Structures are given as structure tokens and as C-alpha cells.
């Protein structure tokens, strides 16, 4: 689905930019997304918020390494 009409950027383009490190509207604008009329800013902010929430729900990589012994439960 096209999110940024002025630049013809899709949700896939936005998600790719977020996956590559874009964490703010300014970051997306540097990628050429949402840097013209601004009509997509609310959608972009929502996508950034969902990506941030998903990242927070991921387990810590240090806590899930298989090198650590797992404590036995009684």
C-alpha cells in the first residue's frame, strides 16, 4: 500500500527503512519518505510506534543465549 503519495513510497519501503535503522520521522525523511507535503506523517509515526513496541517485546539476546544454563524449576 502506498503510504507517501508524493514520493510513491509503500509500506514495504517504510518498513525496510525502519528495519535498516530509521527510528524517527526525521530519519525517514532523510530516506526520502515523508519529506514533502506531510500528509503521511501520522501514518509514518504510527508505523514507527508499532516497530518500537515490537522491538521492546523481543527478548534480550543476552538473556536467550544457549550458553547459559537454565535453572531447574521444582
Main sheet record: 2 strands, antiparallel
State the shape.
elongated
* Name of the CATH homologous superfamily: BFD-like [2Fe-2S]-binding domain
H and E order: EEHHH
Stretches where pLDDT falls below 50 for ≥5 residues?
none
What is the name of the CATH topology? Arc Repressor Mutant, subunit A
Total strands: 2
- Rg calculated over all Cα atoms: 17 Å
Q: Give the strand order of the largest sheet, numbering strands 1, 2, ... along the chain.
A: 1-2
What is the top-level CATH class?
Answer: Mainly Alpha
Characterization of this structure:
- With 74 residues, the protein is mainly alpha-helical.
- It has one domain (2-64): BFD-like [2Fe-2S]-binding domain (Arc Repressor Mutant, subunit A, Orthogonal Bundle).
- Helix content is 43%, strand content 7%.
- It has 3 helices and 2 strands, in the order ββααα.
- The protein has helices spanning 11-19, 25-30, 41-57; strands at residues 2-4, 9-10.
- The N and C termini lie far apart (51 Å).
- The mean pLDDT is 88.
Secondary-structure map with pairings?
Elements: E1 2-4, E2 9-10, H1 11-19, H2 25-30, H3 41-57
Antiparallel strand pairs: 1-2
Short recap of the structure:
It is built from 3 helices and 2 strands.
What descriptors fit this protein?
7% strand, 74 residues, 2 strands, Arc Repressor Mutant, subunit A, elongated, two-stranded antiparallel sheet, mainly alpha
